[in-house]
Design goal:
CATH class of the largest domain: Alpha Beta
Number of domains: 2
Number of helices: 11
CATH superfamily of the largest domain: NAD(P)-binding Rossmann-like Domain
Largest sheet: 7 strands, parallel
Distance between the termini: 30 Å
Order of helices and strands: EHEHEHEHEHHEHEEHEHEHEEH
Number of strands: 12
CATH topology of the largest domain: Rossmann fold
Radius of gyration: 21 Å
Strand content: 5-15%
Shape: elongated
Length: 315
């Protein structure tokens, strides 16, 4: 029998059609399924391709006895119970680097939006107002930009903003060297928060990074500094963030990711006038989705047709 593949969270249309046309794979004819539809497909599914909307839990795996392979179309795999997958013999891969450029550009977009208050100015004009005096912002030029984590996405951000002549600092206990000679590594996380005008977060969500950014290091920030998070929700303690923004202890923040997504309608964060929020758009570009789809399609073929596992993510 042909391996049966399900795409749960959407796929580039042209690539999906190519995938369906591959003779040696049976692909469910919808490139996006509801949770109820997915539930019905679990018993006969051999391969599953997900983005951020689907969570692979131990409970899901119990209902999918034929499942052999899960691909996270993207980089973060915190929505996959990798320990449970390992116990069940289910292999897990991601598509590293496929959306790095888009995520980096979105971090820069949030920086500029927070610094120049453009989102709030736009909303003001849409409301029929002309409040020019309320929206005096700040320049990025020659500011100190501190990176919490300095992996691939962070280094793309640093390269892209180099034209603004910033001082670039980074804290990363894993990255020991970089070819960016203008980036200075610091010894402690506290140093990033004390010295930076802009702090931007680029670490994965893991037990050791949960609530990594909290009241203790937020208290170290300059009163006119801003905080950017395009990494993962849960890295920043949102209650502590709310207090610091509400009390204007820091100037502003731009967040693309949240502890709970979608963000609850009663979240206190929604009341803030110095927090710019976007609905997890880091990878949401046509170009990134094409790259993600190409990698996922290639990895499916390699695994099921050639018994070759690419970009494995282990527990």
């Amino acid at each position: 029998m042909k391996p049966f593949i399900v795409i749960s969270d959407g796929f580039d249309k042209s690539l999906f059609n190519q995938l369906v046309s591959i003779g040696n794979l049976e692909v469910h004819p919808k490139s996006k399924v509801t949770p109820e539809e997915l539930e019905k497909l679990l018993p006969k599914m051999n391969g599953l391709v997900i983005r951020s909307a689907t969570t692979v839990t131990a409970e899901l795996l119990e209902k999918a006895p034929q499942l052999k392979y899960v691909i996270r179309a993207g980089e973060g795999t915190d929505n996959i119970d990798k320990v449970a997958c390992q116990k069940k013999g289910v292999k897990v891969s991601n598509t590293p680097g496929s959306n790095s450029n888009s995520a980096a550009e979105h971090a820069i977009a949030l920086m500029m939006t927070v610094l120049r208050k453009t989102a709030f100015a736009h909303a003001s004009i849409k409301a029929g107002k002309w409040e020019k005096s309320l929206f005096n912002g700040n320049e990025l030029w020659k500011k100190t930009v501190g990176f919490v984590g300095f992996g691939k996405i962070a280094q793309i951000v640093a390269k892209r903003i180099s034209g603004f002549e910033p001082q670039v600092l980074f804290y990363d206990p894993i990255v020991k060297q970089t070819d960016l000679n203008y980036a200075k590594q610091v010894a402690t996380l506290d140093e990033i928060f004390k010295k930076s005008d802009i702090v931007t977060i680029h670490v994965p969500l893991a037990p050791q990074t949960k609530d990594l950014i909290n009241r203790t290091n937020l208290e170290l920030m300059k009163p006119d500094a801003i905080l950017i998070n395009c990494a993962r929700g849960g890295i920043v303690n949102e209650e502590d963030l709310y207090v610091h923004l509400k009390e204007k202890k820091i100037k502003g923040a731009g967040f693309d990711v949240f502890k709970e997504e979608p963000i609850p309608a009663n979240s206190k964060l929604l009341s803030l006038d110095n927090l710019v929020m976007t609905p997890h758009l880091g990878a949401s570009t046509d170009e990134a989705q094409l790259r993600v789809g190409e990698m996922a399609m290639h990895q499916l073929q390699e695994f099921f047709l050639k018994n070759n596992l690419l970009n494995e993510v282990k527990a």
